[in-house]
Design a protein that fits this description.
about 260 residues, about 85% helix, globular
């Protein structure tokens, strides 16, 4: 095993243990300090709370790092299929460690936070990232997919507001809901056409053929699985956002009517 592979495995393992530490210890201490409402939650809610704290930490790290790579890493921009994956490997190794950590947590607390769609999502992502880490191919594509993580903090914050019983129409809740919908759309849905457009543009080229049938199949199949799930989640989020906006309008109309009667 060469030095690069050893380094990659070290990052994956370190990431795994750091996220386990965050879930089992750091989140309890941090959450109790930051949010007084945390201590009054049930055991089940605390488990999901900690899981979402870890998810948010992971999303901020790999999302921001991924955005930097996307904007400034000339090597992957110059050759999206075979460009130097050095920076991308670090980011994907961190993400892979998190995914394996979260899979373990999902299994350990299946009755509380178990979700078959997350299992499918995590396994598909790990399978695809394995080829980037092992063979150093599709670094640009792998990093591009990681930009989707930028939506997770808003999704998690929505749950935090809900479990802390913030009013649905509170300013913080409404603003987060709108941002969640917009960011989720831009990083998970609006990126779908460019991804498949790029896939079509390189299909049949020499660099694409050099990937081999297995990696070609993995690239296409995992993207399809993840994008179908993203579309399903987008529909659910959009329905929720539309419902809240509709209720806000109804509430305003009711208040205007009452004010009119008072006059």
């Amino acid at each position: 095993m060469d030095t690069n592979h050893k380094s990659t495995i070290s990052i994956v393992c370190t990431s795994f243990f750091v996220f386990q530490l965050l879930f089992h210890f750091v989140s309890y201490w941090f959450s109790a300090k930051v949010s007084p409402g945390f201590n009054s939650l049930s055991f089940e809610k605390k488990i999901e709370w900690n899981s979402r704290i870890v998810s948010t930490c992971h999303s901020l790290v790999v999302g921001i790092f991924g955005l930097y790579i996307f904007l400034f890493d000339e090597a992957t921009q110059a050759d999206p299929l075979w460009g130097d994956p050095s920076l991308v490997k670090v980011n994907i190794a961190i993400a892979s460690g998190y995914l394996m950590s979260d899979l373990l947590i999902l299994i350990l607390y299946w009755k509380i936070i178990g979700d078959k769609f997350f299992i499918i999502h995590h396994c598909a992502a790990i399978y695809a990232y394995f080829f980037v880490l092992r063979d150093g191919v599709l670094a640009y594509v792998g990093n591009f997919r990681l930009l989707a993580e930028l939506s997770s903090p808003f999704v998690n914050q929505r749950w935090f507001f809900e479990v802390l019983k913030y009013p649905k129409f509170s300013k913080a809740n409404v603003i987060n809901g709108i941002l969640m919908t917009l960011v989720f759309f831009f990083v998970r849905i609006a990126t779908i056409p460019p991804m498949y457009g790029f896939m079509y543009s390189v299909y049949g080229t020499e660099p694409y053929e050099r990937l081999g049938a297995l990696i070609q199949f993995t690239w296409i199949s995992t993207c399809l699985v993840l994008d179908v799930m993203n579309v399903m989640w987008m529909i659910k989020i959009s329905k929720g956002c539309i419902k809240v906006i509709s209720l806000i309008r109804q509430e305003k109309a009711r208040n205007n009517l009452q004010n009119g009667k008072l006059d």
